[in-house]
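Hi R.,

Here are the chain sequences for the assembly we discussed:
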Amino acid sequence: MNTLIQFKNIVKDFDGQLVLKGVNLDIYENEFVTLLGPSGCGKTTLLRILGGFLKQSEGQVIFDGQEISEVPPYKREVNTVFQKYALFPHMNVYENIAFGLQIKKMSKDVIEQKVMKMLKLIGLEGYEQKNVNVLSGGQQQRIAIARALINEPKVLLLDEPLAALDLKLRKEMQYELKKIQQEVGITFLYVTHDQEEALTMSDKIVVMKDGEIQQVGTPIDIYNEPENRYVANFIGESNIVSAIMVDDYKVCFDDLLFTCVDYGFKKNEKVDVVIRPEDLDIVEVQDGKLTGVVKSVLFKGVHYEIMVETVPGTTVTVMMNVTREHDIVNEEAGEKMSANDFYVDIEDVKDLNDAEIIARADAQAWNPESDEYISISKIEYDILEEVGTYPVEFMTSSGTSVTINVMVVQQQYVENPKANEAISAFNFFKTVDELKESTAIDTDLKTWANAQGWKLSDESIVEIESVEYDFDPETIQVGTYKVTFSTQGRQFKIHTTDVSEVGKEVGLSFYPEDIHVMSKKGY
Amino acid sequence: MKVFRRLAYPYILWMSIMIVIPMLLIILYAFSKEGNDVATLSFTFAHFIKFFTDPAFLNTLWLSLRIALITTIFCIFIGYPIAYAIAQSSIKKRTFYILLITLPMWINMLVRTYAWIGILSDNGLINQILSFFHLPTTQLLYTDFAVILGMIYNFLPFMILQIYSSLAKMDKSLLEAANDLGANRWQRFLKITLPLSLPGVISGITLVFLPSVSSFVIPKLLGGGGYLLIGNIIETQFITVGEWNFGSAISMIMAMIIMLSMYVTRKFDKRNTGNKRGDLS
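And here is the predicted structure of the full complex:
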């Protein structure tokens, strides 16, 4: 196959904003190439540069051995099918398709022959006299394709041509387009954000992100051997797990060692592992390479989507002391005041200042008549970096004061090396009213307990997935309650035709070649 | 819905009083004899016969139509390139240019036309410049040229705005498609831009031709006292001569001519922008 188009280090910026960051890409004759990526990844920009509607800021476009950056669009041997078809509304079907040939001043009978041939190719014979404005989206689409193809371009550029069609028509047109491409035997350069479209039609897929090419390959390559986490996520569904490449053919995740078919990484290099949901099988516990508990079963039509938790999340339980209303009333000044006791980690004592203490104690003063807040003018405390209980007094300018206790403690946290994470939370004090007034109780409990989760390896934040408690905030009484915070465990998504039950303990089995190891580079 | 319909009643009443009744009165006057009151009405074609048998009136009508036609043609050829240039410029500049085009319309038409007298008169700006360079001065004011110039000046913005709006709303991807299919700038203009902007040109023609054919202020000021267009004759019949019935008849004839010309342009418009051969489905 001969190289037809070469993009050499294409850079494009719009007012200083980089849209393409040095794209290198070769496109061969007769290929169906798809530029795939989310909106804003630069795929349409690249297409428009080839069409001649935009000029690159840097780099070269070589077309058929010639640099074409200075060639205007009407002299390029490419034609475009525009996203919204851009059919000429003042011309009928015949005139639209014949447009390019009429510009070339071909003789009438040649034009007629060619138009008829095109109408046959797109299956719209007998439509030549129709007004293009009254045709359906699918028919307009075909006419746009015919209008471009009749000029016998070397490359047909298609800019999300199926985006405006409904699902069924889109699928039909996918086959149709592939058929047309094989029949006319020219290169198609197709832009889409739909991974399924790309997988169905392409000979070659170019996955793009933020103006850079992530991977170029056949649909099978891209699906089975994604180069990084981004590509794996974008194409198809996947389980992506952080792992360590212990040695060639040996990868470690979930504290277990697995045999795989990948090699060439550094010893103990941190990598990402992808296992496709359809490559995992649910087996008996004793036969599984991994074991876990079924968390959910969803019926998806052809298959079930089953989530299995192999590593439970990390959990920490704290005590919530619910107290009575403890507003201090100062009749003379007409003021009310309140504040809560609170716990603080010994390491955080040095960060305490007036504002921090007011916030943590939730200290407030207000006028009960007008409900207006009154500022706290003075705080007295002497908190040492030692475990113990210290009094703190808050005062307003009119002499109302409230005293609370601050408990300096050694922070308790739960480590979970298997899941590479840790979680911590504090006991806390709240009044009945504060609980009753809470509108988002889970979020408030997290804030009040200062619950946090983090990765042991790099201290990045781990989301607290669930908050459990056994009280009803509407009817809560004074007392002490347990609140449990936990992170989400490691879950694997499995596509299988066999149903399973939620809560059942199962094994997961897979083959070494189902494990695909990807470099973490850049991600 | 009924409540909303009731809201339209005052408007309908207003329209009847201010538009329909005066028009009916004009028709009534046009077909009735001089000096009649409504009680003793007698029907006649005399005013129409008078108009169509007097060559002086017919010549004036012909002159009016000719002047209006020339004005319209000039407005198209001056207005189109200006509208095109505005539509091509950046969005920020567009607003500014449109402001420039509409700015003169904020000033009373009479005042603007008077200004032209100052420019065109024998001792006016143009002749002074000519004599400064020792060139022969020339009579500019009170000629066909002055009248047409005044009309172009007054009515050009309508043409520009109409063409501009049809150019501005044109889908830019159509132009890219034409380029893509091998059309250069000129071919693209002839085959895509021009046909798609014709509706704007047509409504521009309507907006320029109609006021210029019936204008009486501009010919009076720039053409001089003896310069008569059909609008001036109607004005004279009503205000100076006091022959309301004859004036009404001429007004009706004008209205018929205008309606006819509108009908013709609309037809032309449809043939060009609709589908020529299609519309089968």
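The interface with chain A takes residues 171, 173-174, 176-184, 187, 191-192, 195-196, 272-273, 275-281 of chain B (CB under 8 Å). DSSP finds 13 helices and no strands in chain B.

Let me know if anything looks off.

Best,
T.
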